[in-house]
Each structure stands twice: as C-alpha cells, then as structure tokens.
Specification:
The protein is an alpha+beta fold. It has one domain: Trna Endonuclease, Chain: A, domain 1 (3-Layer(aba) Sandwich). The chain is globular and about 45 Å long. The N and C termini lie far apart (34 Å).
Length: 130
C-alpha cells in the first residue's frame, strides 16, 4: 500500500472513530446504554463488525455508523453482504448474552455528516435471509 493510500486509510479511520463517538453521545443523551463498541463476533466465522450495540428498555439495537456528507450516501453504503455479516455478528453477540434473549432486536444506521448531529434511522433493515 502506498504512503498516500495509508494516509487516506488513517484519515478515514479517524473520521469513523469521531463519528462513532458522536453517536455514543447522542445515544447516551437519549437514554440508551452502550453495550459494545466495534463488536467483531467470533474471529474466523465471517462475522462482520458491529459499530455500536445499545440497549434501551426492551430493545437492543445493532448500529452501523457511517460518516458521510449526505444522508442518502450513508444509507446506500450498507449493502446486502454487509447486512448479512452484521446479522451474523448480532447472532454471535446474542448467543454470548442469553440474558438479552427477551429483547426486541433491530438494525439501525446512524449517519454523521460534517457539522451535523447524527441522524438515527431506526429499524433500517431486517435480518436478511441466508
């Protein structure tokens, strides 16, 4: 990887961490409890990484965070393959936390644009079929 590509990757990583932090603030202020950040499931099982896992009342949300200039661009950035990987990671998380089995689970997306408060799209997709 060239030095320029590595610098771009590091900058994207910093933006992503900043966006996640901002989303944690918003979620916490609205009554959510953060259960995990950057949860990767079981290594070697083709699980995707879940940016944030949060709980409020009887709902657990598996949240994908996107740092994008436009809201639509953030929504379009999550394809079916990524949804399936996130779904497998969610299943792994719930298998390791049986105390959460009674919760209603959903998949949310939070989009952070430059200078904008995070937009929270609840129940952005359903668990894809295998």
């Amino acid at each position: 990887m060239s030095g320029h590509a590595t610098a771009r990757k590091r900058a994207a990583e910093r933006r992503g961490r900043w966006a996640e932090g901002l989303c944690v603030v918003r979620l916490t202020l609205t009554g959510w409890r953060i259960l995990a950040r950057r949860y990767a499931g079981i290594r070697g099982t083709a699980c995707g990484e879940i940016d944030l896992i949060a709980k409020r009342g009887g709902t657990i949300a598996f949240i994908e965070v996107k740092a994008r200039q436009a809201r639509d661009a953030g929504l379009l950035a999550i394809g079916h393959n990524q949804q399936r990987r996130i779904g497998r990671a969610a299943e792994a998380f719930l298998a390791h936390h049986p105390e959460l089995a009674q919760c209603t689970a959903r998949f949310d997306v939070m989009i952070v644009g430059t200078g904008l408060w995070p937009y929270h799209l609840k129940d952005a997709w359903q668990m894809p079929s295998p």
